[in-house]
Amino acid sequence: MIVCCLLGGRLCKFWFGGKVANARNKKKLLSPYSSTSLKPCFCRSLCDSLASGMESIPAKYNFSRYRISAKLGAGGMGEVFLAEDLELDRKVALKILSSRSLNNDEGIRRFIQEAKAVSALNHPNILTVYEIGRSDDSHFIATEYINGKNLRERLRSGPIPVQESIETALQIAAALNAAHASGIIHRDIKPENVMRREDGLVKVLDFGLAKLSEKISSLTEPEAVTLVQVKTESGMLLGTTAYMSPEQARGKRTDERTDIWSFGVVLYEMLAGIRPFEGETTSDVIASILKSEPADIDRPGQEIPPELQRIVRKTLQKKPDERYQTVKDLMLDLQNLKSEQDFTLRLERSHIPSLAKTSATEEAASDRTSLTTQPIENFDSETQQSRTWTNTTFTGAGKKNKVFVAVLAGLIAALGLGVYFIFLRVSADVPIESIAVLPFQNGSGDAGLDYISDGISEGLIDSLTLLPELKVIARNSSFKLRGHDDLQAAAKLLGARAIVTGRFEQRGNSMVVRVEVVDTYNNRQIWSQVYDRTPAEAQAVQKEISLQITERLQLKTGSEGQTQMAKQALVKPEAYENLLKGRFAVRQYTPESTLKAVEFYEAAIREDALYALAFAELAYTLRLIGASAFLDPGETNPKAQRAALRALEIDESSGLAHLVLAEIRRDQWDWQGADALYRRSIELNPNLAEAHEGYAVYLSVLQKHEQSIAAMRRAKDLDPLRLLTQISMGAVFYNARRGDDALAVLENALDLEPNSPITHTWIGIVQASQKSYLKAITSYDQAFKLGDDTTATQCYYGHALAMSGRRDEALAIISRFQAGTEFVSPVSLAILYTGMGDKPQALDALERAFESRDPQLQYLNVETHFDNLRVEPRFKNLLQRVGL
């Protein structure tokens, strides 16, 4: 045995990780589980087989507790063998790390990472891992054995039929959805990694490039095991070139939308038989991915449904923000398409073939004795029947006419059933999972009553958000589409399936409200109703409408939802009217209107001291004023806290009140308290976009950037057109030192609202972090012109001026602040001093901020403008005192 192994030393290096066999290590040549009947020269035989790529190896070889019988294949990380589990008596696929990876720590890490990634998942469309182990110096994974073909083998015979492609795509999407829900990104979706069993079940395998992020699901599963986060170095290319997303090809950070791109490439290839991006070299392929647009899929002999073409195009958008944002949304579109395809197939199968012609053509001709446009009276006889059919009369053999009429009646019944299924159903297999309430039209001709029509819409949103199985678009976004006539286009912009519209009119002492719910998938009306009430019954109408919509959509409220809906007791009409006026004022987005909203909420509370929603709205608005830095948060936050606590005394289930307290705890650097309150807010109201946004910022300041971005994407999904959500998304990218991504998001925000001053301010902040000070100054100047002249913005502006050499202008800003009486955050002043290069003054300002408990100190760890202070002992000490 020693001689054989010494002669085959280089081959044994493949198997034993470079440890050349000799007399001292001869005991290591066999696994402790090896059969005693194993011949001495088997080691070399095995090594020869592995190195030469033979399809089988000597049978009956035991490796650990497995008996290997054949080689199934090889990949970049190792070989895969068919084996038998000797303890559990079942077939397994055994993946053993190759020598190229065994001497490579990164290869071992990725191998173990793959195993942990897959073993953390439990889904019928994901390969099941039985064991992760090590035998001697060899790492291995034992998984279920799949008897089938991968998609690459299937594609060798040409494109895959449309229906089969859709079914396969749905199963791949289901696997990715489960992985993403666990914080796992595959990053190497390709035909080789998709197996289809003989029974049609699809399995996704090889999570070797999976990127693990901390589980967002821990919001609801605090005891869940946290997966180890694996970071990819910037510029590192992972994956298979033809299936890489543009951001992956550039070596940038990736997220779930990278898998959506790769999924789109695979779907395109299944349908077309070719890849959407090709080239002679790797560089050519990457250039095609970055610059070329894929051609529409052309399938001679089989038409590709336009909706399927649209789905593929959306998965292959170059910009991640323009793709599907979640696999769940992609699955919904595919499921809708599949349902319509299935129905079409059922309808086609219901067509009964034409009656077989008799061999005697003359007999068929003699049956048709006349064809006239004049109806005649029906009559029956033993030998003949006649039937009137609109204006056409058929006469002939009675039996044949009966059969013909029966066939025709059956066909009409099938068509009628089809029309019913298409136009009159809320389908069980395509449920309505998302809805948006557009602002009701004010048909009274009095703009002063807009707050009532808007208020009914907002009340509906408040009630519907309590339904756990329904995604409800936030009012900030849905109200952007006021007066939008194209409901299908509105639904696409908002990411909603159903749209609620309505009209309000006041006629003397009567109030008429018309409501309609439209399923935009097939543009049909699900439900409509007209209510004739008095203005004092506005809130009762809103509650009645929400209950009827819930019943019509056959939605379940869940225990939390039932409790909260039951607590939506009617309040005094005067209090409700003031609440509506306050909400209307907040939506004007000016300091003056926001302060006016506070007055309206306080008036509502005076009218009804047990109005929990008014207390919660007052608390949220006061916190917003302090966070906007046009009033001292030291003054506004205590008032906001008292109002939120009072709201919870009245109604403990107020998600908004929990959110306000979470924000205040964050401002007070109470990180654990904030975390618990954010989670409770989201648990009480999963559709509260502001709660997801606030939690994203909280995670961001704690430098949990991947989780933060995921939470912000959820907020954006619920509130896609809200400007502040876009800006917050840019801010968390900025905090994560992803300046290019931040600028891309902020530029999209300008598309929503070109004249937004705060967007220009944030663009300037990001540009300054990239040392583009002249560009930053231009952006700040634009922000000033549009109205953002807060002291915080002036401090950022002064920093950029000083860094660009215009120190005198920066000093002038400092002098003005010293002489004036307006509120200036000490943290903002510290930013200005860092631009001047005055570290002592900057650190003194931060100490004053600590003494006054300035909420802005929470950003110490992520604010790039403080980078030149990070080595200072005083700064490090301050971080410790703030709990960062």
Beta-strand content bin: 5-15%
Question: Number of helical segments?
Answer: 36
Which structural class is indicated by helix and strand composition?
Answer: alpha+beta
Percent range of helical residues = 40-55%
The biggest sheet amounts to: 6 strands, antiparallel
What is Rg?
34 Å
Number of strands: 21
Give an overview of the whole structure.
This protein has 884 residues and is α+β, with helices and mostly antiparallel strands. The chain has 36 helices and 21 strands. The strands form 5 sheets. The chain has a 6-stranded antiparallel β-sheet with strand order 1-2-3-4-6-5. Strands 16, 17, 18, 19, 20 and 21 form a 6-stranded mixed β-sheet that branches. Strands 12-15-14-13 form a 4-stranded antiparallel β-sheet. Helix 7 (162-181) runs antiparallel to helix 12 (327-350) and helix 12 (327-350) runs antiparallel to helix 14. The chain is globular, with a radius of gyration of 34 Å. Mean pLDDT is 76; it is low at 1-59, 212-238, 350-429 and 556-567.
Give a brief description.
By secondary structure, the chain is α+β, with helices and mostly antiparallel strands. The strands form five sheets. A six-stranded antiparallel sheet has the order 1-2-3-4-6-5. Strands 16, 17, 18, 19, 20 and 21 form a six-stranded mixed sheet that branches. Mean pLDDT is 76; it is low at 1-59, 212-238, 350-429 and 556-567.
